Amino acid sequence: MAGKPRHRDCQLADPGLCLESERLCRSVPESARGHRIDPVLEADQQASALWLENRGTETANLQIRVFAWSQSGFADQYQNQREVIGSPPLAKIEPGQKQLVRLTRTRDVPPGQELAYRIIIDEIPSAQPITPQDGTKSAAAIRFQMRYSVPLFAYGAGLWSKEDTTRQRDPKGAGVPDLSWRKVAVDGKTFLELRNQGAVHARLTDVGFRQGTQTRPLAPGLLGYVLPGAVMRWPLTEPLAADATLQLRINGASQVQALAPAR
């Protein structure tokens, strides 16, 4: 891999490469395009799918890999695995064309559990030189290598977390995160520490702190994830009052939730 690839956690479609997810044998409506990408493998599903569309002007050569995803030491960890297979592992997509990536699991998830994976899509640099826009033969150009990181969650029997109006659901199986937070100081630096004791992941967006009548944003977009049983930390650059309340949107909920610090 030449140089360090630029990393993009896929929430919105890239102008050059568009990603869409769907369950096999189900279509994605046009209105869903461009929204965050979050494929899942329900307990009764053996496969899901990810569509890759090349909206650029050059051929896209891609490598697709699926890693087990865990969190320890306040950081994301990725391990090789054979529980979910992405096919094809390599794709060549011409401009304006699509490629279906099938995500097939090889074993069942234990009942009542959620397992997390990351689909890593690396752009393979082309050996063909870039043609300058002015048509000249001599010009300096940089070809950036992109990396797309797409979360994938698989569920065991009796557990689900993603709303789907086309499926019959047992409300008792609805998994929710159970979050608590505190401010911690380490080596002269201050961090927001979030713990998830729930059965499913928490995707954190629109995170900020409310102090009195004022709200101070920490991350207006995606802050990150906290997987079940994990603890994650994010640095705080400004002082935080003792009575501050954490505000955040969890898993795309319609309402922002307020959390008092753990005591």
From TrEMBL:
<protein>
    <submittedName>
        <fullName>Molecular chaperone</fullName>
    </submittedName>
</protein>
<dbReference type="InterPro" id="IPR013783">
    <property type="entry name" value="Ig-like_fold"/>
</dbReference>
<dbReference type="InterPro" id="IPR008962">
    <property type="entry name" value="PapD-like_sf"/>
</dbReference>
<dbReference type="GO" id="GO:0071555">
    <property type="term" value="P:cell wall organization"/>
</dbReference>
<dbReference type="Pfam" id="PF00345">
    <property type="entry name" value="PapD_N"/>
</dbReference>
<dbReference type="InterPro" id="IPR016147">
    <property type="entry name" value="Pili_assmbl_chaperone_N"/>
</dbReference>
<dbReference type="GO" id="GO:0030288">
    <property type="term" value="C:outer membrane-bounded periplasmic space"/>
</dbReference>
<dbReference type="InterPro" id="IPR050643">
    <property type="entry name" value="Periplasmic_pilus_chap"/>
</dbReference>
<feature type="domain" description="Pili assembly chaperone N-terminal">
    <location>
        <begin position="40"/>
        <end position="154"/>
    </location>
</feature>
